[in-house]
Every structure is written in C-alpha cells, then in structure tokens.
Amino acid sequence: MDSEQINVNLDIGAKAVMLARRAAAAKLNNEKLPEVPDDPIFHEKHGVFTTINTYPDNQLRGCIGFPEPYYELGEGIIKSSIYAATDDPRFDPMEPDELNRVTFELSILTVPQEVTVNPEERPKAITVGKDGIIAVYNGASGLLLPQVATEYRMSAEEFLEALCEKAGLWQGCWKYKKVKISKFQAIVFGEIEPNGKVEQR
Fold first, then answer.
1. Cis peptide leading into 56, omega within 30 of 0?
2. How far is 20 from 197, CA to CA, in rounded Å?
3. Do residues 126 and 148 lie in contact, with contact meaning Cβ atoms separated by under 8 Å?
4. Which parts of the sequence belong to the AMMECR1 domain?
5. 3-state class of 138 per DSSP?
C-alpha cells in the first residue's frame, strides 16, 4: 500500500490530531478518554505514530507508535498519544500544564514492506522525504519516520546510519544482510501551534 492509497483528507487529519491531543489531556488530567470519531477511517487498522514537540522551539517531547496495523486507527491514536505523553523512556512524563506548550503531530502509516535488494543497494531503494524505515536484527529494532530525514537533511545513506543508531546496532548495520530493513510511507498532520490549526506536512 502506498501513502496515496490511504484516504485521509485534511478534515480527517484535523480530527485525528484533535483526538491525540484530547487523549493525552484526558490521561494527564485523570479524565474520561475521548470518543473515537464515526468516520470509517478511524475504524480501519493502520500503523500510527504520535509525535509531541515543544512550542515554539520545536524540540522532541515524546514519540511513540505502532509501525504495524495492530489497532484500529482511532484506538491506535489514543494509545500512541498517551504513551508519547507519559511513557517515552527518553523523557519524564508530561505534566498537565505542558499541554499548552506543545504541539501534536500524527503520522498514519502504510504497511511496512521489506527492502529486498542487495544490502549495498539499499540507499537507492529508499526515497528520502517519502519513505520511513525500520531495522530489525536479533531482538533489536528501530524506526525512523520519513520526516526525520527531511528535518535533518539526511541522504539515504545517512538516514540508514541514523536508523542503525536508533536500533542500538553497530555503524553500517544496514550493509549486513541479516539486518532486516523495511520501508513505509506516511501521511503526516500536525498542529501549527498548541491547540491551533492543523496542516498536512
């Protein structure tokens, strides 16, 4: 499945980002979790990631999700948003008063497909800015969303090296045939400012 095959317009994207924000807010304030919108897309299974960034300096505050379509989209958004706000091991759990100083971003993923070319050819099989990548080897794994390469202006090779580091593997791990590399695409929506207008990225 290509990203163009995920039928998500800006209206749905805005609802998805709002659901993520409301879910995190409900968890942090010990309130009832929000209802999932009725739109059919929220009841289809998709991989999804929630990214929370500080505002206005745009530093990562939490990012967790599910690369595989384990959950219906609405449920996946709620879970990933709560985990990003409270369980990202790189950060302390958010406090409720932080909600007005962060933005929420949602990435809705296609199903990952293994990159089956010769390992040395893997950079050529990855489209920077379009593909996200996953590495799996011997119980270790890591994932980088497509927008990471764009944000840090990485080449495909640099993107793969960053993936090896993210997965806790050795430098150049992507050249090793037994390291499984998969790629996926994502449709990304995010708030321009806290509680603000949502745009597609």
1. yes
2. 14
3. no
4. 11-200
5. coil
Answer for the pair 86, 97: CB distance below 8 angstroms, yes or no: no
* 201 residues of the chain, pLDDT tens digit each: 454 467 789 999 999 999 999 999 999 999 999 999 999 999 999 999 999 999 999 999 999 999 989 999 999 999 999 999 999 999 999 999 999 999 999 999 999 999 999 999 999 999 999 999 999 999 999 999 999 999 899 999 999 999 999 999 999 999 999 999 999 999 999 999 999 999 998
CA pair distance 134, 49, nearest whole angstrom = 13
DSSP category for residue 191: E
Number of H helices, E strands in the chain: 4, 8
Nearest to 174 by CA among 139, 128, 111, 125: 125
Name the pTM for this structure. Answer: 0.86
Domains and CATH numbers, the chain: 10-110+186-200 (3.30.700.20), 113-184 (3.30.1490.150)
Give the integer Cα–Cα distance in Å for 183 and 162: 14
DSSP letter assigned to residue 46? -
Residue 128's Cβ-count burial label (10 Å; 0-12, 13-18, 19+) is middle
- Which positions ≥6 away from 199 have C-beta within 8 Å? 10, 189, 190, 192
Q: Which residues share a beta bridge with 186?
A: 109
Residues in the chain: 201
